[in-house]
Specification:
Elements: H1 6-11, H2 25-36, H3 40-52, H4 58-70, H5 74-82, H6 92-104, H7 108-125, H8 132-144, H9 149-163, H10 169-180, H11 184-197, H12 202-212, H13 217-230, H14 235-247, H15 251-264, H16 269-281, H17 285-295, H18 303-315, H19 319-332, H20 337-349, H21 353-366, H22 371-383, E1 387-390, E2 394-398, H23 400-425, E3 433-438, H24 441-449, E4 459-461, E5 465-469, H25 481-497, H26 504-518, H27 528-535, H28 555-576, H29 578-589, H30 594-601, H31 605-621, H32 646-658, H33 662-675, H34 686-695, H35 699-710, H36 717-730, H37 733-744, H38 751-763, H39 767-778, H40 785-799, H41 803-814, H42 819-831
Parallel strand pairs: 2-3, 3-5
Antiparallel strand pairs: 1-2, 4-5
Length: 873
């Protein structure tokens, strides 16, 4: 397509003054707010009255058509546009709005013709469109024609802002552009900038809500509330709220909000598309078909309808159904990029990678500014550098260096999870599970969500594809990567059993529950904060529990949602048995609604809710019954070890630790551990008591406390490291090996646990594990490479592996005066069979000169600085 020379027209030649409306400004100033506030019927009345009085301005016709569109009066809006195009032959604004009106009436070719007319008009009359309103209209048309978005932003919308800072349209256009390209950060900035000038304009609050939607649901809801306060008929706000409610599985409230939309616009295609989604989720095929037909009533090839249906189904993890919807949308319009990029992500989440990556590249080539497509294109380049580990059941992608270090442990863990969980739940997997582990959080975010960011997620499962952050990406509080992968593979089992038709709370609850079944230190347990939430007003009914994951007030509230979900699963299994849970999953896979499935195999849902509430309250009330959990006043001076209050004892102990009163601190800390031995939360007494013992040189007591902590916590790397040190000094090799394995489940990318594991395994006669640990240790640039090479050489020599000589020579290269290495090398030379001497060849050369005598001690090689080497026993 030949684009108009916008830039030359815009900046070349003399700038002419903007078009001045001949309409009655006062009347227009009264009418425009009616539309902005959602008083569409009143706005139509005002416009019709003005037009009847022969008001000549196109503004009245534009406002009239927009108001009719807002009320779903599409054919009336079509009449307004079509009867005024000849009246305003130079109007790009009327043609731009007309394109939208024609499309909503199914006049696709006519709509394309209007866009072509704008192209022509802007090509030779750009001098006439220099006012703010027309600059914005031409800029929006330029985007539809394929002009570079950045140029449009800078050379149309930004210029329009400078021309008339009091006009809202350039700010809205800039924000809409950013949203269309999935650039939510830029969109937020644009709408926030507009709100500084138009604080009461609902459209800016709504734009801000849309920019928050992918990352901050609480802020989104606050902005939606601000929008609907200012325009109670703001249909797009209700639709965004419906979108959110569907995500939270509050389908009843979603339907109630759709009714509010239909009260304003009974023909809105997106509202009918959402109703089709709700029908699909209810397994109501007839209702889904009818709603989709209503959505396509006026424009029967509207690609946005199937795109929206598919996007929502994919957000419910129904990727196969979602992908089918996107393919239907692309049949309507093969160039509809939102459907193409969504299909790309659906296919990637289904493991259909070849087509998924190809579609992402097509979108990126067609629209270089689309953030999701750009991110996926960059991610594909990074993934191509990953190592691939496979067996019959898994395909694991990891960074090359991490794969060499702990990739085999990943495969072993996943295989154990598959064997355990598939047998337990009766699932036979028919194709390998894809697992991708990312050292860069941004890559994990792009692969998982299409965008970098979304901190807080350790892993995500889509059904047959798992994505996870590697231990290298963790900052601050670490996590047990083995527990994460076990949790995510459990999702593989339950999602495939239910065909991805299960509520979020049940899916997460089973995965956390199975963590605890595999290892009591994994998963989540009751804490003082959770106790407070269960017994207070923050306990969530099962019917609302999935929504708790969407917009949590804090990280604690999100973690509590996981805990409560696991508690609910524990209740169901303990009360009704594992077979009942498996039967519920089966029914969900057949399309049953969750409450019906639960009632069919347990008890009426109201009774289940009551029993679960009692189960949770009993668990909370029985937490450390010897302690009191009422929160005392702050800044009290009467704290003492005589108290039985958990918070008082904790506060008092911490004060003593800060004051370095180690002996006195032991008293409240020991009391806390006696009365509440299961506390491994951030307020746990274990690390503090171990610290006190260490400062008092009470090594045996410190070891006992650390053992108690290590046996209860899954991610206390500092405790595991200290225990390895203490137990190695005592020669307690089984304990060293146990804590080395614990440490590696948290951080497999540091040399210390491998060094300890190698020593412990050799001492315990497990030569294969010792060799494995040594090999890995050498990949991690250990502080004593000579010792690691020597130990590996010694172990390989015991197995007859010829690689022993190479590692021995590497040890000597690092430490040439390493006496034990020399002794082993002499032994290897003595054990090597000597080749038969060849007969001397005739020679006329003089006899060789006898070598000079060698010094008694070994010398370093010349020209290479050496660090002092340790003398090996």
């Amino acid at each position: 397509m030949n684009f108009p020379p916008f830039l030359v027209c815009l900046f070349g030649g003399v700038m002419l003054s903007g078009f001045c409306s001949r309409g009655r400004a006062a009347d227009l100033d009264d009418a425009r707010p009616l539309f902005i506030k959602g008083q569409y019927a009143e706005c139509i009345h005002a416009c019709e009255a003005a037009i009847a009085e022969r008001e000549p301005s196109e503004e009245w016709r534009l406002l009239l058509a927009k108001s009719m569109m807002a009320l779903g009066r599409y054919t009336n809006a079509y009449t307004v546009i079509s009867t005024n195009l000849e009246r305003f032959p130079w109007s790009v604004r009327l043609r731009l709005l007309g394109r939208e009106v024609y499309l909503q009436n199914g006049q696709v070719n006519e709509a394309a013709g209007l866009l072509a007319e704008i192209n022509t008009l802007a090509g030779y009359r750009m001098w006439a469109y220099q006012d703010t309103a027309n600059l914005v209209a031409v800029g929006r048309a330029a985007l539809l024609l394929g002009m570079d978005p950045r140029r449009v932003l800078e050379q149309f919308f930004d210029v329009a802002k400078k021309r008339d800072p009091s006009n809202r349209e350039p700010y809205l256009a800039a924000g809409d552009l950013a949203l269309a390209k999935n650039d939510y950060e830029l969109a937020s900035k644009s709408f926030s900038q507009g709100l500084k000038k138009f604080a009461d304009d609902p459209d800016f609050h709504f734009g801000l809500a849309r920019s928050y939607a992918p990352s901050d649901r609480l802020q989104m809801l606050a902005s939606l509330d601000a929008t609907l306060t200012r325009n109670t008929n703001h249909v797009d706000s209700y639709l965004l709220l419906v979108d959110h409610l569907v995500d939270g599985e509050d389908y009843h409230e979603a339907e109630e909000n759709l009714k509010k939309v239909f009260a304003v616009n009974p023909n809105h295609p997106k509202a009918w598309a959402h109703r089709a989604v709700l029908a699909h989720l209810r397994n109501d095929a007839a209702g889904e078909t009818k709603s989709r037909e209503n959505a396509l009533r006026y424009w029967d090839t509207n690609p946005e309808v199937d795109h929206l249906i598919g996007r929502k189904l994919s957000q419910k993890y129904r990727f196969a159904e979602g992908a089918a919807c996107q393919r239907r949308a692309l049949e309507f319009d093969p160039k509809f990029l939102p459907a193409k990029i969504q299909l790309s992500q659906d296919l990637l989440r289904l493991g259909q990678e070849e087509e998924g990556w190809r579609l992402a590249e097509e979108v990126h080539n067609a629209d270089a500014y689309d953030v999701t497509a750009f991110n996926l294109s960059a991610l594909q380049e990074n993934l191509a550098k990953f190592a691939v580990l496979t067996n019959a059941d898994f395909l694991v992608r990891m960074s090359t260096n991490e794969a060499a270090i702990y990739g085999d442990r990943v495969l072993e863990l996943l295989q154990r999870a598959k064997n355990t969980l598939c047998a337990k739940y009766g699932l036979e997997l028919t194709h390998p599970t894809i697992v991708e582990i990312f050292p860069e959080p941004k890559d994990f975010g792009v692969r998982t969500f299409g965008m970098p960011g979304n901190p807080g997620y350790l892993g995500v499962c889509f059904g047959s594809v798992i994505t996870a952050n590697s231990p290298a990406s963790q900052t601050g509080h670490t996590a047990n990567w083995q527990a994460v992968l076990w949790h995510e593979f459990c999702h593989v089992v339950t999602l495939q059993l239910t065909k991805n038709k299960m509520p979020r709370w049940l899916s997460e609850g089973i995965s956390v529950h199975e963590e605890l079944q595999q290892n009591p230190t994994w998963g989540q347990v009751m804490t003082p904060r959770y106790r407070e939430m269960v017994l207070g007003k923050e306990f969530t009914p099962l019917s609302e529990l999935s929504a708790a994951f969407l917009a949590p007030k804090s990280e604690t509230h999100l973690q509590f949602a996981y805990y409560e979900s696991a508690l609910a699963v524990e209740f169901l299994v303990s009360k009704f048995g594992l077979d009942a849970l498996k039967a519920i999953l089966h029914d969900l896979g057949e399309g049953a609604e969750i409450n019906v499935a639960i009632a069919n195999h347990t008890a009426p849902i109201d009774e289940v809710e009551k029993q679960f509430s009692k189960f949770a309250r009993d668990r909370a009330e029985n937490l450390a019954p010897g302690l009191e959990f009422s929160k005392p006043e702050r800044n009290t001076d009467d704290d003492s070890a005589d108290s039985k209050n958990y918070y008082v004892l904790t506060r008092y102990a911490r004060k003593l630790i800060r004051d370095r009163k180690w002996a006195e601190a032991k008293v409240p800390l020991q009391k806390l551990l006696t009365l509440y031995p299961g506390n491994t939360s951030s307020d746990s007494a274990y690390p503090l008591l171990a610290q006190a013992h260490r400062h008092l040189n009470e090594t045996n007591e410190e070891r006992v406390v650390l053992h108690q902590l290590a046996s209860r916590a899954a991610d206390e790397a500092d405790a595991y490291g200290r225990l390895m040190e203490l137990e190695a000094a005592a020669g307690n090799w089984p304990s060293v090996r146990t804590n080395a394995q614990r440490y590696l489940a948290v951080n497999p990318l540091t040399p210390t646990p491998y060094r300890q594991l190698a020593q412990a395994s050799e001492a315990l006669g497990d030569r294969d594990e010792a060799i494995r640990a040594c090999r890995t240790l050498l990949r991690l640039d250990p502080p004593d490479p000579a010792g690691a090479h020597y130990q590996l050489a010694r172990l390989l020599h015991q197995t007859g592996d010829p690689g022993a000589r190479r590692h021995l020579l590497q040890a000597l290269e690092e430490a040439p005066r390493f006496r034990e290495a020399h002794r082993l090398l002499l032994q290897l030379n003595a054990e090597s069979p000597s080749p038969a001497p060849a007969p001397p060849a005739p020679s006329t050369s003089p006899p060789p000169v006898p070598p000079a005598s060698k010094p008694d001690k070994l010398e370093a090689e010349p020209g290479r600085a050496r660090q002092p080497e340790p003398q090996r026993p």
